[in-house]
Write a structure and sequence with these properties.
Elements: H1 2-15, H2 18-27, H3 33-41, H4 65-77, H5 86-97, H6 136-145, H7 152-163, H8 170-185, H9 192-205, H10 210-214, H11 220-223, H12 236-249, H13 270-289
Length: about 290
């Protein structure tokens, strides 16, 4: 396994953009939170929001809730919950201003249409812009982590909706697992039902075979680094199996092939997005291989 890790690490160090390079150094204990924040700030607009290609599947430079949520994922990975930081303060201000009247955030935006983007970021109109808990659950939880106590009522309402039986997609499940970790860190009371339902949905949605891993499904390697370890404990056998699968499917340059492709839509931009994603995926896989 050490050779697999070394090859993947060489790929990251060779091809990572500054943001992912600094994140990886931080995860190794060799970098700093400040270095990651400086690299992340390159994607922040004057209104406080973030644009592309922070999210490599969308090159729209304007501030978007989705790209701004992506910025939050980086902030979480470096344990940055300081609302006094200018980057965070301005981000929260943008998110407040871009929030819908119902409390949710749009997943798509019509401004993306004029820039290279994956088909799933094609805006289909007002009725299709909210994708359930994705990315609202994570954004709302981040508000709570930075001390916005007025967010409590909305979070309680959203959790009731989930616990009352709404079926979720794999992306929503990851959002909710991150949300659980935030609420647990805040000593939120009465998380037992939330935990139970998350366990049920994880068992329902996680892919458990190489055939499933080849397709576009939920794999433990995709999100093991962002959820509470209690959800991983029943899957030690599956973790070992997927680690072996990653060792078998690593390419010669140390990366892994993606299981999605939008080269037919923007052939000149897909190679750029592909490389960015391969680095992000390699960093995720390195964390997973070291479990």
């Amino acid at each position: 396994m050490s050779k697999i890790i070394a090859k993947a690490e060489n790929f990251v160090l060779k091809y990572a953009r500054p943001l992912d390079y600094e994140l990886y150094r931080y995860q190794l204990g060799q970098g700093s939170q400040g270095a990651v924040l400086i690299a992340l700030a390159a994607y922040q607009n004057a209104d406080g929001g973030f644009g592309g290609p922070l999210e490599p599947d969308n090159f729209c430079p304007y501030s978007l809730p989705l790209a701004s949520w992506n910025a939050i994922t980086y902030l979480r990975k470096i344990s940055c919950f300081d609302s006094k930081l200018a980057l965070v303060k301005d981000l929260l201000s943008y998110l407040q201003s871009s929030r819908r009247a119902d409390g949710y955030w749009n997943a798509t935006d019509p401004r993306s249409q004029d820039y290279p983007h994956a088909p799933w970021w094609q805006d289909q109109g007002e009725a299709q812009r909210v994708w359930g808990f994705n990315p609202t659950a994570e954004i709302s939880a981040y508000f709570l982590r930075v001390g916005v106590t007025s967010e409590t009522a909305f979070m309680e309402c959203m959790l009731r909706r989930y616990l009352d039986g709404q079926e979720v997609s794999m992306h929503e499940l990851v959002n909710l697992l991150v949300c659980y970790a935030d609420l647990k860190a805040l000593n939120w009371e009465n998380l037992d039902r939330f935990e139970t339902k998350l366990r049920e949905d994880l068992e329902r949605l996680v892919s458990k075979t190489p055939e499933g891993w080849q397709g576009y499904g939920l794999r433990l390697s995709m999100f093991s680094g962002v959820m509470d370890p209690i959800f991983l404990s029943p899957y030690q056998g599956l973790i070992s199996a997927e680690q072996a699968y990653l060792a078998e499917t690593q390419t010669e340059d140390g990366s892994w092939e993606l299981n999605w492709d939008w080269s037919g839509t923007y052939p000149e931009f897909w190679p750029i997005a592909r490389r960015l994603w391969q680095v992000i995926q390699a960093i995720q896989n390195l964390q997973f291989l070291r479990l």
